């Protein structure tokens, strides 16, 4: 069993806010990938649903995930995302993973 924590954020842009949302999300990538304890930080888009983005994050443990949420770049994201999108986040623990 692993202590890794996977976070999946599903964001649906408000009408006319797709480009702003994408920019905000892309702005997280470099800083988030540089965090100690970050194993993966990827941004995906659903080609069948314009304006739907998925953040796929993986951390070594719960402390690393908590440190990410406390970071300045994440706080900037949280302060701005509400005006741009509806958001759902899942914090997951491994059950059976390869």
UniProtKB/TrEMBL annotation:
<dbReference type="InterPro" id="IPR050744">
    <property type="entry name" value="AI-2_Isomerase_LsrG"/>
</dbReference>
<dbReference type="InterPro" id="IPR011008">
    <property type="entry name" value="Dimeric_a/b-barrel"/>
</dbReference>
<feature type="domain" description="ABM">
    <location>
        <begin position="5"/>
        <end position="96"/>
    </location>
</feature>
<dbReference type="GO" id="GO:0004497">
    <property type="term" value="F:monooxygenase activity"/>
</dbReference>
<keyword id="KW-0503">Monooxygenase</keyword>
<protein>
    <submittedName>
        <fullName>Quinol monooxygenase</fullName>
        <ecNumber>1.-.-.-</ecNumber>
    </submittedName>
</protein>
<dbReference type="InterPro" id="IPR007138">
    <property type="entry name" value="ABM_dom"/>
</dbReference>
<dbReference type="Pfam" id="PF03992">
    <property type="entry name" value="ABM"/>
</dbReference>
<keyword id="KW-0560">Oxidoreductase</keyword>
